[in-house]
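=== RUN LOG ===
request id: a7f3
mode: sequence -> structure
chains: 1
length: 308
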Amino acid sequence: MLRRIELEILATVERGDTISELAMKLDHSESYLSRAVGDLVEKRLVYTERDGRRKCVTPSDSRAVEIFQDLVRQYSHIDFPELLTGKALEVLYYLDQPRTVADVAERSGNYRNTVNRILKRLRDRGLVGTDDSRYQFNGDFDRLHKFARELVHHLHRQRLESVAPNGTILWRDYDEFLSQTETEIEAEKFHETGLARFAAFDLQFLLTRHRYYLYSEDLEEVSPVELCCHSLLIDDGSRHHSYCLLLLSHVDIDESDLREQAAKYGLEDEIDTLLRYLETQGAVDSDRLPEWDEFQKLAADYGVDPLQ
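=== RESULT ===
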């Protein structure tokens, strides 16, 4: 997310500092500082401008920068850049409530040993404490979680704006986000989802003027279970519920995988309702789901057998 040198710059820089002044404060070479500042400029966390022959650095007005600099000023005795290197920010991102090491590890996709080591280091410095094996922030150090969340949102916005300036983020996680745009995105790591993606599974629906993309650094393509979850995030109305029912009836899915993805997106209840609807042939009371005979007619129109 951010290297230690980048965190050191954000912790130190004051409006109008020059590269040479920052290099002196942080005891690094000017060339090294200049490259790190360039990386922060690209992320829009600082800005630079020329003052004669000098290049001056100014922190951006990003909420993430504001939170971080306030913490550094208030707790100047804590070496935040050292504490927040590696996977620390990712762990803090998921510490939105008291959680066990296992819970944070599962949500972040990191090894338990890694999470335990990070949380122990934060506990030793008094930033977090434990109650019944659950870690939680002490005092107002929950601002570290807010910093991680704001930083992730800020960087996701930069990624989206670089390919779709008018795009909107509908959902986000530490290293993924779901976006809505009015233009096609062909950039690496952006994977088309939403109604257009149903065609890959032989379900062709009338498209709207919006397009939808999942940004993910690890994903190769959007699977049916992910598509189902994305569709409900995009629109939780009756039409998209019916589309998801068609998809779940038409392709082979791993129910445990579907439920795991539902938990990731906070859609456990919605997905459970869809599965019960299919299992009971419509014996579910929901104004977002069609009557069973209506769904059978819809399924027949698309060549889908809901009883298969």
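=== NOTES ===
The chain has a mean pLDDT of 95.
The two ends are 46 Å apart (CA to CA).
=== END ===
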